[in-house]
Write a structure and sequence with these properties.
phosphoprotein, Synovial_Prolif_Regulator, Protein SAAL1, nucleus
Length: 476
């Protein structure tokens, strides 16, 4: 049976044709008001006090949904994507009916469908504002985040993301979430233990949106996990469990990594947002295990998965935002690594692979930024021009982050490291030239210091690079 069957014709019987023609249609649709009234009335009966009393001794009646009712309410779910239907449901106070179902029903499938319908309705601004202003409904919906049913959690997360994306109501939802500290535990539990990729992606989008909207909430969630001393082992009891945001984000990222690039992008952006505040950086690097786990995951992504030597350069277009987040977080960890022994001891083995990856990204970026001459693309519509400028914007961000990270690594290179890299072919004239091309003129001091080291090792190579970049020759 399909999860969401196609909506029914308004009324198929001959006796109903006159009624439909006489005003039974919902708005400009062919859906029947009478039929919809019947379905909603059936929902009311399911959660009515009389029905609740009669089913007290029969748990199965509370958790199972009648097949006919499921088919009908699924049709309403599909229909609710139409604005006329959504507005009619709003007029009929359907959100209050769904709230009653969510508050009283123990049937996971019914709860999922009701939240799903509300999620569809919230896609329309007027209804979203109305739903968001209903405090009781807001409380009930947030309580759905404590549900154990993945489909219900998925629809709840989708609804929350829709509301958080509406500027008129976003702050109200942020405040409600702040007033419910247990939501932090529930979301962390999902990120750290769920294997449902769709759910992890949607929950990640909610967290990403929350952190982007409200730095104060992000700081509160970071500090929630810092309440337990790092040097004390956690109690085995689940009741004593303390969630830390970074390990939970990492676990979710590992789960979605191979199946959903957009999901991985979301979780990398969450880490990037964490590094915009000092408490967030400390949450990553303060605990050696967390810091090392974060570094190793991100290092593996950029050196062994993204933008590889045998990938076409154009692949950078689909990886540009996730790479920007990954390099940004790696750069933040690297910049704070003075006190981090796990990086200090092994940093030599990271430098050259990262340089290779960064230079390849910058090289591919040049290919992506080349504009075709005398092609049909030069006469695109305004919307396509807007898309191109958006791509250029993200590529510029990636370039800025990559160049800053590359300059930090170049500053840390020692004479012995450079000599060994040149001898073993890990660093070439072409790579140096490509690096200089991107680092100049903004990172001139870094390039000049590297060139000094290079002169002591290979005067010929240093001279060739000076010839290619006359500004360096003049300043030396």
């Amino acid at each position: 049976m399909d999860r969401n069957p196609s909506p029914p014709p308004s009324r198929s019987e001959d006796d109903d044709e006159e009624e439909v023609a006489g005003g039974d249609c919902i708005g400009s649709t062919v859906y029947s008001k009478h039929w919809l009234f019947g379905v909603l009335s059936g929902l009311i009966q399911i959660v009515s006090p009389e029905n609740a009393k009669s089913s007290t001794d029969d748990e199965e009646q509370q958790v199972e949904l009648d097949e006919e009712m499921e088919n009908e309410i699924c049709r309403v779910w599909d229909m609710s994507m139409d604005e006329d239907v959504a507005l009619f449901l709003q007029e009929f106070n359907a959100p209050d009916i769904f709230m009653g179902v969510l508050a009283k029903s123990k049937c996971p499938r019914l709860r999922e469908i009701c939240v799903g319908i509300l999620g569809n309705m919230a896609c329309f601004q007027e209804i979203c504002v109305s739903i968001s202003s209903n405090k009781n409904l807001g409380q009930v919906l947030l309580h759905c985040l404590y549900d154990s049913d993945p489909p219900t959690l998925l629809e709840t997360s989708r609804l929350l993301l829709t509301c958080l994306s509406q500027t008129q109501v976003a702050s109200a939802w942020v405040e409600r979430i702040r007033e419910h500290p247990a939501i932090y535990d529930s979301i962390c539990f999902i990120m750290s233990s769920s294997t449902n990729v769709d759910l992890l992606v949607k929950v990640g989008e909610v967290v990403d949106k929350l952190f982007d909207l409200d730095e104060k909430l992000m700081l509160e969630w970071i500090r929630n996990g810092a309440a337990q001393p790092l040097d004390q082992p956690q109690e085995e009891s689940e009741e004593q469990r303390v969630f830390r945001i970074v390990p939970c984000v990492l676990e979710a990222a590992k789960q979605v990594r191979s199946e959903n690039l957009e999901g991985l992008d979301v979780y990398m952006h969450i880490l990037q947002l964490l590094t915009t505040v000092d408490d967030g950086i400390q949450a990553i690097v303060q605990c050696p295990d967390t810091g090392k786990d974060t570094w190793n995951l991100l290092f593996d992504l950029v050196c062994h998965e993204f933008c590889q030597s045998d990938d076409p350069p154009i692949i950078l277009q689909e990886q540009k935002t996730v790479l920007a987040s990954v390099f940004s977080v790696l750069s933040a960890i690297y910049a704070s690594q003075a006190e981090q022994e796990y990086l200090k001891i092994e940093k030599g083995k990271y430098h050259l692979p990262l340089i290779d990856s960064l230079i390849r990204v910058l090289q591919n970026m040049e290919h992506c930024q080349k504009k075709p001459e005398n092609s049909a693309e030069s006469n695109t519509e305004d919307t396509k021009k807007s898309d191109l400028s958006q791509d250029d914007f993200h590529l510029k961000i990636l370039k800025d982050i990559s160049c800053e990270f590359l300059s930090n690594i170049f500053q840390a290179l020692t004479k012995d490291t450079v000599a060994k890299a040149l001898k073993e072919g890990q660093l070439s004239k072409q790579q140096c030239s490509r690096a200089f091309q991107n680092l100049l003129p903004f990172y001139s001091p870094v390039v000049e210091d590297f060139l000094k080291i290079l002169r002591e090792i290979d005067k010929t190579l240093a001279g060739d690079l000076e010839e290619s970049f006359p500004s360096l020759k003049v300043q030396t």
